[in-house]
Each structure stands twice: as C-alpha cells, then as structure tokens.
Amino acid sequence: MARFSLVPTEIIDQILKFVPRPDLASLCRVNKSLHQSAELFLYSSIEIIWDKKHQKPSIAPLLRTLFHRPELLSYVDEVHLHGAYFPDDLERPLLDTATADIPLDEFINIINKTKVSYADLWVERLRSGHMDAFAGLLIANLAKISYLDITHNFINGNDILSEVLLSKVFGQLPTFDHLKKMVYAKRLDYKVWERNEISLSTMSLFYLPAVTDMTVRMSNPDVFEWLVDVPTLNYLTSLDIGWFVEPYMAQLLPCVPNLKSLYWSWIYHQSPNEDMEETILDFNKIVEILSNIKESLETFVFSMEIGGDDYERKVDDMEFLGSFRGLREFKQLKYLSIPLVCLAGFGSEPIPLEQSTPAGLEVIHLRWEDLSGFGVEVGWRNGNLFDHVRPMIQPLVENSPNLHLLTAVRRKMEVRTKLCAPDCHP
C-alpha cells in the first residue's frame, strides 16, 4: 500500500478540509510529511469566542505564534470574532497579561511600528488586558483574508478595534483588498448606550473595495455624512442591515447600484436623542427609497420591531402610513419576506395583496408581527386571524404565475404550486 504522504497534494487537500481542527493540530505535531498541508488548513480559519463561558480565550498565544512565524499570516482566509451573551451592564472581563508566555514587549513593539495616532492608547489597553487591543492587533496584521466576521461582544463603541478597522479601510494599516464577505453585527446594548455608537466604524466598511456580501448593524448618527467622498459599491450584491432609519437608508442605497439581496431590520428603540425617535413609518417612503435598486433587487426581506425586551418607554403614538403597493413595479423581484400589514395595511378593510406584488415573484413569506402591545392596531383584524388571511391568499396565488411557495402567519398557512420542486424551498 502506498504511503499516504505520497498521495497527490490535490487529493490530500480534499481529505484534510473535512478533518476536525483538533485532529489537524495533532497531524501538525506528529506527522512531518503532512505538517505543511495540515497547517495550511488549521490556520485558514480562525475563530475566537469571547462570552460568559469563554471569558479568557487564547488570543494572546495565537498572536505569539503568528508573529513568531509570520508566514502563517498568509494562510489565514477567515476570521470569526464571536460572542453574544455578556450582560449589558457588565464590565468586559480582562485578559491575564502577567503570564510568562505572553510577550507583551514584542506586541508593543509591533503596535509602535504601525505609527497610528492611537498607538499610545492601544499599548495602554494592551497592558491592562482589554480584548479590543488584542483583537485589533490580530486584525491589523491580516491583509489577505476574504471573510471577516465580528459580533456583539467585540463591538463596543469607539474602541481600539473600531479604530483599527478605520485604519485598515483608509490605508494607515495594510488594507483589505481581498475581503469579499464582511459581518459587523451587534445587538442593542440597553444598559451602556455608548457601546452602540458604532456609526463611524460601520460607515467605514462601505469603503471596502471588493466586498460582495455585507451584514452590519448601523447606529444612527445625529447627522449622516459620509466619511470622505460618497462611496460606490459596485461589487456589493447582498446587504443585511439593521437599526438604520429610512432617511439614512435613502442616502445609502444609491451607492449600491447592483444590489440583488436586501435584508432590512427596522427597529424603533429608545435613544438618548429623542429627536431621532420618529414615530411615523411610511411604507410609501420605503418603496420610494427601494426604487434606487429596483432594476437589480431580486430578494427583499423586511422586518420591523418596536423596542425590545428591555424597552423602557411605551409608545402610544406610533403611526403607520401607506403600503408597499409600489413593489408591483419591481420586475426583478423573486423572493419577498415582509410583515403582512405592509401589503394589507392597517385600515378597516385589507388592501388586496395581489395589487402590491410583481408577477415574477417565486417565493412569498407574509409574517404576522403583533404590535398591539405598543398601541398599534390593525383595523381589519377582528376575530380569528386565519379567517381574515385565508381569503386574502387565494387571489394572490392566482395572480402570481411564477409562484413556487407562499407562506403566511409563521408558516402556519402554506401553498406550494406545481412549480415547486421537492426540497426546492424547505
């Protein structure tokens, strides 16, 4: 039997990509002939988890290894900084920097060589064990990654990591020329509002030159102004954005002329600036804003929420105007997932759904979002919800010749047409 190490590299790579990470690490240690191939896969994707169960992840030893063997930095293709469940009012746990295996002086020397304006603060926070300083050191030294994924616990307002992102985008640090997918997603922090003030770092991401797929949560500044010239994101085809209010969305969408998929999570929430709390949501205005991408938009997912579990101020005067009737002119639209009231309205009689949907739709999901707890009533809903929805569905199906699947009210009502192949739309 031929030795495994003599197998062509292409075949070895096809096998190694399915090997669990702990086993890849073992291969690197015990098999000299497979060391290089296994190492390439081991470092191709880096994940750091920082949450209640993982309060002191091994990011410092990772940095030590990468800086002692800089060729490993070129292997890194994806970075995932994950963490979702620190209590909002809890001070972020510090890393232990007093151990002998953390070469702080070496890290500090690397920071000082960047010559960025915030280097002194960066060093100070590194010495005191703040995660943003260590995460920033990792990101600052990566230039060839194609996927960067940063979530809640790593996003804390205007910290070192946010400064590093700005520097990477605008050239003070090695730029993200190969980045294709970007996730910068934070849930609202209701206890420490400053952690939500991430508009600068988020806006900088729209200047990334090659990103095709972006997920961001965008805090709303008092005044929306682009950081430099208005960006043009010709490569961006998929955008998942949350928190962003309509007037600012109107300035963003003209910059993404080739956008095919838009996932927009509209949230009305308490803000220190009450002037930012618009109590009117105009569906006509939303369609007008979407018209900037009418010729390219194929998938549109829209959700709306008033406040959250920790929302402290009741909304008694929320007002909804108009409808999504203008979507009928979006000829490229194939997939639509929106609250039912966006089509049916809030009046005493529902607007016929087929009046608002383009004929080319293949998948329609009509969700029920109960806003009555916030003083928002749907006039046409009187009695059993299903008794109202069922007669609304059939005309929509009949007037949608390309329809594969329609669901309504948490998928409790479902219609699959003859065009829907088995397992086509699970």
UniProtKB/TrEMBL annotation:
Residue ranges occupied by any F-box domain in the UniProt entry: 1-53
SUPFAM superfamilies xref list: F-box domain (SSF81383), RNI-like (SSF52047)
TM stretches of this protein: none
Tree of life domain: Eukaryota
InterPro entries named in the record: F-box-like_dom_sf, F-box_dom
PROSITE patterns documented for this protein: FBOX (PS50181)
UniProt-listed Pfam families: F-box
Protein's name in the database: F-box domain-containing protein
Organism: Clonostachys rhizophaga
Lineage, highest ranks first: Eukaryota, Fungi, Dikarya, Ascomycota, Pezizomycotina
